[in-house]
Design brief:
Elements (H helix, E strand, L loop, with lengths): L21 H23 L5 E4 L10 H10 L4 E4 L4 H7 L5 E6 L4 H6 L1 H13 L6 E9 L8 H16 L2 H6 L2 E7 L3 E3 L7 E2 L1 H17 L3 E4 L2 H6 L7 H4 L9 E3 L2 E3 L2 H15 L7 E6 L11 H12 L17 E3 L36
Parallel strand pairs: 1-2, 1-12, 2-3, 3-4, 4-5, 5-8, 8-11, 11-12
Antiparallel strand pairs: 6-7, 9-10
The structure holds 2-acetamido-2-deoxy-beta-D-glucopyranose (2 copies).
Amino acid sequence: MFSPLRSTLSIPATTISRRRQEVGGLVMFLIGIVLLSYTALTVVAQAPLIGVCNGRVADNLPPEGDVVAFYTANGITKMRIYEADQFTLQALKNTSIELALDVPNEVIPTLAADPAAATAWVQTNVISYAPSVQFRYIVVGNEVMPTYPISHSVLPAMHNIQNALAQSPAVAAANVKVSTAIRVDLLGTTYPPSAGAFADSATAYVVPIVQFLAANGAPLLANVYPYFAYIGSSGQVALDYAIFGTGGRVVVQDGALGYQNLFHAMVDSVYAALEKAGAPNLQVVVSETGWPSAGNDGATPENAAAYYLGLTNGTVTSGTPKRPGQPVETYLFAMFDENQKPGAASEQHFGLFTPDKQPKYPLVKFTN
Ligand SMILES: *[C@@H]1O[C@H](CO)[C@@H](O)[C@H](O)[C@H]1NC(C)=O
Ligand SMILES: *[C@@H]1O[C@H](CO)[C@@H](O)[C@H](O)[C@H]1NC(C)=O
């Protein structure tokens, strides 16, 4: 999440788109009630789709254990953490929170070079906490680009971690998936969404990873930021399209599919790229998305509130135009404002809460 989505710049300026006996009847009636209740329960019990990233690049955040309790207090049942912090892992034991655990970029070369190092990392950070901690994903690398020297190490590290996880029956039974979190910038084309394709310069890096994910039934994780696409578009992307503000109006017509918001368009461009890469059944999980409240163009509390409300009201994550019945598991970035985040000024203002645990957007609910 450090640069605008350059490929969105290619949006052309012109496109801005109900007897017999009494007893029998009573039985039927009771069965009806049971069925109705069952249906209602099924809906209510649907797995929550919304998680929150627990970034801690700050010197003023609550202690790790308090943060875990604060997730639970707010009904947040999925968390992503960026390193294997032992205080957080300890606090997560016996909670109902599912975890996406990152392998930090700088650790990847070691785990790639030596299977024993991967086994040790998995033993210390995963197996020793399972099943009390519900691991969902091991995220091997965040936003690694093909130009980074570590890019050659990502897939070997994924292999070694996958093999190490398989050595624990408890972890294997929990079906923990190994993946990596990409930037949508790996796509050379994102517009229209059906034209989505990985850049030629990225295919040698990303296609073998996609094949690994497909072989293991794991999703591709993608950090999806309509905010950066918006500010990098020189006015070609309309604000209301970026912040779920079009009131149901189709802004981009792409063949038979109509797009009312940029988030769906970006996710579907990734699905299109996966189809072209030979993995039409791979699922996309949005491993980060958010909108800052200050620091750069378009970064206001009002725009951020609209963005997070639009995302979490159940409409958006129920599916995309290209995958209508397929829920999009989505991790909001981030839990708190992070006052030591480097980069653009907006980087420090992505929090859903202030460091003293006040909600910046009180209307946002995390329970779908
Ligand atoms: C978690 O639950 C397990 C099984 O009930 C129990 O043995 C363990 O002590 C609990 N751990 C914590 C940290 O509460
Ligand atoms: C959810 O948000 C979308 C986009 O803003 C909007 O069209 C829809 O009416 C909202 N639905 C509810 C139930 O709030």
